[in-house]
Amino acid sequence: MRKTTIMFDTNIIISAGIYGSTKLANLVNDISEEYEIVLSTAIIDELRRVIAKKWPKEELKLENFLNKLGFELINTPTILGDNYPKIRDVKDYPILASAIIGDVDVFITGDKDFKAINIERPEIMTISEFEEEYLN
Asked: What is the spatial order of strands in the sheet that 106-108 belongs to?
C-alpha cells in the first residue's frame, strides 16, 4: 500500500527548519518519519532564494534541514495558469501545479491564498489541521 504523500510549502519549511519553534520542527520531523515527503524544484528554488536574500547566514542550516528531512524531488512543470484552479498570487502557480501533477495527497501551508482554493486533491491544510486530522 502506498504511503500518504505530503508536500510542505516554503513557509512551513522556513518556520520549522530555520526560525520555527522546537515543537514545529519536531512535528515536521514526525510527519516525515510517518509519511512520504514530496518537494518540488519550485519550492527548493524559492527556499534558497528567500534564505539567500533575507537570512544568508542560515543557508547551511537550510541545507542541513533539507538533507535531514529526506524527500522525493519532483520537477516543476512549465505553468500555464489557465490549466489550474485560480489563485490570487500568480507566483504560486508553479507550487500549486507541482502539488497537482506530483499527485500529492496533502499540501501543508500557512498561505491563505492556497486555503482559498477549492480542489479535491491535494487536500490543502495548515500544519495544525494536519496534526488534528492525521496525527491525533
From this structure: 72-74, 36-40, 5-8, 106-108, 123-125
